[in-house]
Amino acid sequence: MVTMRDVAERANVSIATVSFVINGTKRVAPQTRARIEAAIEELDYRRNVVARALASSRTRILALLHPDLEARPNATVIQFVMSAAHGARERGYDLVLWPVNDDEQMSHLLAGGLVDGALLMEVRICDSRVDRLVESRVPFALIGRTENDDLPYVDIDFATTIDQAVGHLRSFGHERIALVTQRTKAAPGDEPGRIMRAEAAYLDATAALRRRVRRPPAVIAVEGTSAGGREAARTLHDDFPDATAVVLVNEGASAGLVKGSRALGRSIPDDLSIISASTTRELGEMIEPSLTVMAAPAPQLGRLAADALIDQLEGVQDTPPHLLIPCTLVPGQSVGPPPEGRRR
Amino acid sequence: MVTMRDVAERANVSIATVSFVINGTKRVAPQTRARIEAAIEELDYRRNVVARALASSRTRILALLHPDLEARPNATVIQFVMSAAHGARERGYDLVLWPVNDDEQMSHLLAGGLVDGALLMEVRICDSRVDRLVESRVPFALIGRTENDDLPYVDIDFATTIDQAVGHLRSFGHERIALVTQRTKAAPGDEPGRIMRAEAAYLDATAALRRRVRRPPAVIAVEGTSAGGREAARTLHDDFPDATAVVLVNEGASAGLVKGSRALGRSIPDDLSIISASTTRELGEMIEPSLTVMAAPAPQLGRLAADALIDQLEGVQDTPPHLLIPCTLVPGQSVGPPPEGRRR
DNA sequence: CTGAAAGCGCTTACAG
DNA sequence: CTGAAAGCGCTTACAG
To answer: What CA–CA distances, in Å, run from B278 to A176, B171, B252, B294?
Structure first.
């Protein structure tokens, strides 16, 4: 292995000077620099990142913490992960995957000093992992939000997204719109923030409408699987037969909802309009009929989260970043006017 | 930050002894050990992994190299990644994501000394990245195979998988079976090994049959997208109208092939049987009708690849691992007998 | 069974 | 503009 010492000897300088030109941390006379650069080139020297990390107490490694990475993460989650990894890499950082559920284990990992910062996904409104993160004094950024707005985060703007979804359906004439969200193993009220915010946004966006047509909210929570989607179709059919449209915030259940509805004899979109919020356009294309989706800004948000964290680490920024980006409407074939008979 | 020195002082021993008990690398008198353990507990000491890495020249970090991680990796790839990350973590290793296409950049990263070993995905038959890996002297394992069988690998057994898929279709009476694979940007002959092996296996498995019915092979390569799938449906319809069944080795095109075929008036499975090989059962369930799939053993293989690499790093194993696991047939509703008129 | 000490390959005040 | 040297927090022969 060729070390900095080898380069220094060949260029006839001290290792300090070599370090200065490699890092650009101090002025070095042009010809000294040239000698060093030549030596580096000739020896094909590459700085050892571990030694650098120990000496500078900066590893340039970021952790990505996600509880469900083992299960089957949906396409949107993957986009977050991949874009965060790319964003990090472009700024000279590496991303390690930490599929950790346990708070205790998380603290242990954090305390090991491997990572300079952490990105946390699937954030809950009250999330003990965030407390651990704060305790650990490792800088972090959230992909999602807790109720504490002071922490740095990057999140999907569910309020705007759901509002637009509802607006889109209303523009077709729908007045009875249900919401299908995701059921998790979490205690009620402790679900990922995304679920709670989507529900709140739905209640908001449909409030005036519901008042007018005198109907209670129609909210269904099912597993994020095909089976969950079919369950939602049945519940919708049995318990909310007058609903003519659905806003879905449950990517994994999308296909099942469509299949289940059709199995119950309801055609999409003639009998039921569906809009799947916070997913990928690829998922929409896979389903028949093509789903109208609100595409999640995951490819941007993952990178923005990495950038926000790195800015924080490098002291580039003054104030904790709070980024909120709505999903983008991508029309498919799953939304149409409500059936005549059901229109009120 | 509490260091080993702090622990040593509190326990009244040298830091060497502390190191010995933490690593279990040397016998230590029971009561000395107890004192040290107490001190560790009281100070909530956690060994610094960076210092350890520098001193021991082992980082316990593994790199996962995948060229297409930025694009949209399919569900199977994700299963590989996640199970590899989990397998590594369980053995005390971390996995960093290196979404790198460029050979040069790969060599740079490898030379930095951050990782003890690497896992390479999307391996081509002749893969220059493998040469770089060998040059770099960083131990590695392949997920996939080159033509050089001496390297350690873990791979899907495409020969068996395709053979079983063809056998399954034949048991329903199909005699004219097409193959749909994936088109990549790679030069011909330089595609990922999986594609070439699948094609070879198809030619093998259908050889006798084709000889009997006097028909040439029917192989179609399309993009791994919904559009690609629709293109395959059209090509099948136009160029191979007598094919009554398809084996698909193109996860991303599955949904498009079904939608495209139906759009051309061919019902599945009445007019065309489809079996999607090397994918996830979840994908099969999403599509209507539910696809018969050969589920990839990705959740096992990712972990096995990590294990193989770690065994190699720790000198646990003698011979380079060569693991080949076939996919598992999961019947859906996309395979049935061929239409009467077409049966020959 | 335990310790003193060298060393891993860098960075970074500090001095000149 | 350049260098000598301390130090990052561990591991690991070596000696006793």
So the answer is: 42, 20, 11, 5
Please give the pLDDT value at position A207. Answer: 95
Res. A105: pLDDT tops 70: yes
pLDDT tens digits along B251-308: 999 999 999 999 999 999 999 999 999 999 999 999 999 999 999 999 999 999 999 9
What local confidence, expressed as pLDDT, does residue A69 receive?
Answer: 60
- Separation between the CA of A17 and the C1’ of D2 (whole angstroms): 7
Strand partners, A181: A221
**B194: exposed, middle or buried (Cβ count in 10 Å: 0-12, 13-18, 19+):** buried
* Peptide bond connecting B289 to the previous residue in cis, omega within 30 degrees of 0: yes
Backbone angles phi, psi at B246, to 5 degrees: -130, 135
Bases of chain D within 7 A of a CB of the protein:
1-5, 7-13
Nearest nucleotide by C1' position to the A7 CA atom: C9
Residues of chain B with CATH 1.10.260.40: 4-47
Q: The domain B61-156+298-326 is classified under which CATH number: 3.30.750.24, 3.40.50.2300, 3.40.50.2000, 3.40.50.880?
A: 3.40.50.2300
Q: How many helices (H) and strands (E) does chain A have?
A: 13, 12
pLDDT tens digit sequence for A223-266: 999 999 999 999 999 999 999 999 999 999 999 999 999 999 99
From the alpha carbon of A56, which nucleotide's C1' atom is closest? C11
The shortest CB-CB distance from B99 to any of A85, A108, A113 is to: A85
Q: Give contacts of A 19-78 with B, CB under 8 A.
A: 44, 46-51, 53-54, 59, 61, 69-70, 72-73, 75, 78
A chain contacts of residue B280, beta-carbon cutoff 8 Å: 72
CA of B115 to C1' of D13 (A): 25
- Is B4-47 CATH 1.10.580.10? no
The most confident of the ranges A60-69, A112-121, B125-134, B312-321 is A112-121
* Distance in Å, residue A12 CA to nucleotide C15 C1': 20
pLDDT at A343 over 50: no
The Å distance, CA of A49 to C1' of D8, is: 13
Chain B neighbors of A99, CB-CB under 8 A: 82, 85-86, 89
Peptide bond connecting B338 to the previous residue in cis, omega within 30 degrees of 0: no
pLDDT, tens digit, 9 for 90 and up, residues B210-252: 999 898 999 999 999 999 999 999 999 999 999 999 999 999 9
What CATH number does domain A158-295+329-342 carry, 3.40.50.300, 2.30.30.100, 3.40.50.2300, 3.30.365.10? Answer: 3.40.50.2300
B27 touches strand C (CB under 7 A): yes
The phi and psi torsions of B310 (rounded to 5 degrees) equal -65, -40
Amino acid (1-letter code) at residue B282: E
